[in-house]
Write a structure and sequence with these properties.
By secondary structure, the chain is an all-alpha fold. It has four helices and no strands. Helix 2 packs antiparallel against helix 4 and helix 3 runs antiparallel to helix 4. The chain starts with a helix and ends with a helix.
């Protein structure tokens, strides 16, 4: 599975497609940040026994952190190759 994840793919985008993808990544940054912050707050909530109230909240925080890193990497790749 790790080999599949790291296998590189070559794609072709028109300038318009590249622009649309870049714009979408940039325009949704605030939404992703707010989602991560909301899950971070929920991950800190404890029940009456001191256990996390929302057991999957931290994994959602981790997901958004990884997603943001991946999207920034993708944006830099396409900007470097197509936007240059």
């Amino acid at each position: 599975m790790d080999e599949w994840k790291s296998t590189k793919k070559t794609i072709e985008l028109t300038n318009e497609q590249w622009n649309t993808l870049t714009c979408y990544i940039l325009m949704t940054t605030k939404h992703r940040k707010e989602e991560k912050e909301a899950w971070q707050k929920l991950s800190e909530e404890k029940d009456e026994n001191g256990q996390p109230r929302f057991k999957n909240a931290q994994s959602n925080v981790d997901f958004y952190e990884k997603l943001e890193t991946e999207l920034e990497t993708i944006r830099n790749i396409i900007d470097g190759r197509l936007g240059g």
